[in-house]
Amino acid sequence: MQLVLASGSPRRNELLQLLDRPFQVVRPQVPEQQQSGEHARDYVLRLAAEKAEAGAQLSGSDAAVIGADTVVVCDNEVLEKPTDEQDFKRMMAKLSGRAHQALTGVALHHNGATDRVLVSTTVHFKILTDDDISAYWQTGEPQDKAGGYGIQGRAGKFVTHIEGSYLAVVGLPLYETEQLIQAAERSYDER
Ligand SMILES: Cc1cn([C@H]2C[C@H](O)[C@@H](COP(=O)(O)OP(=O)(O)OP(=O)(O)O)O2)c(=O)[nH]c1=O
């Protein structure tokens, strides 16, 4: 079974390499816009599936195509990538000293269908000072990350503990991704 990663995320590329399966990469552009009344869980699963399906169109083969999406949710508000420093500071003020959820949806499009899995991880932040927040923006890490932080980078020192999957917070949970791939392999074998 040929495998394609539909993602421009360097984290997802590095993580998928750890499954030791060859894969190609395509970078579909899928608009990320939550619909009114759409639950955060439905939203990340929809985006993951849209990325996988757009990736399948780009790759033009009958390969199995992986798409994923990560958002941070706090007080029912979905936090995506910060649009600017002010937006980032608002996000950090919200996340400071409490818990939030990092949701990652993973989708695998194969044989004309799209399988999906959602992984929710609770992330606890220490109380952030104004200096923490200003210094973190200057590192350049927050700009391309959901919720404005990367647990794998300098925001690691903000995280007191997590409940769930560290790799899902970073962008691609490997256990669940491997399960999706193995199920797809079985369905190709049965054809
Ligand atoms: C919360 C968190 C997110 N992130 C990243 C993972 C994703 O790359 C990004 C969330 O944005 P996404 O829209 O999920 O992904 P992306 O635009 O980077 O890549 P693509 O859609 O092409 O697959 O935030 C971290 O790297 N560390 C973290 O701790």
UniProtKB/TrEMBL annotation:
Q: Report the superkingdom from the record.
A: Bacteria
Q: Does the keyword Cytoplasm apply?
A: yes
List the residues marked with site Important for substrate specificity.
R11, T70, Q152
- What keywords appear on the UniProt entry? Cytoplasm, Hydrolase, Nucleotide metabolism
- What broad class describes the main subcellular location of this protein? cytoplasm
Active-site residues from the entry = D69
Where can this protein be found?
Cytoplasm
Q: Name one Pfam family in it.
A: Maf
So what EC number does this one have?
3.6.1.9
Q: Which cofactor does it need?
A: a divalent metal cation
Its EC top class is: hydrolase
Quote the catalytic activity from the record: UTP + H2O = UMP + diphosphate + H(+); dTTP + H2O = dTMP + diphosphate + H(+)
Q: What does this protein do?
A: Nucleoside triphosphate pyrophosphatase that hydrolyzes dTTP and UTP. May have a dual role in cell division arrest and in preventing the incorporation of modified nucleotides into cellular nucleic acids.
Hey, which family's this protein in? Belongs to the Maf family. YhdE subfamily.
What is this protein called in UniProt?
dTTP/UTP pyrophosphatase
What species was this sequence derived from? Pseudidiomarina terrestris
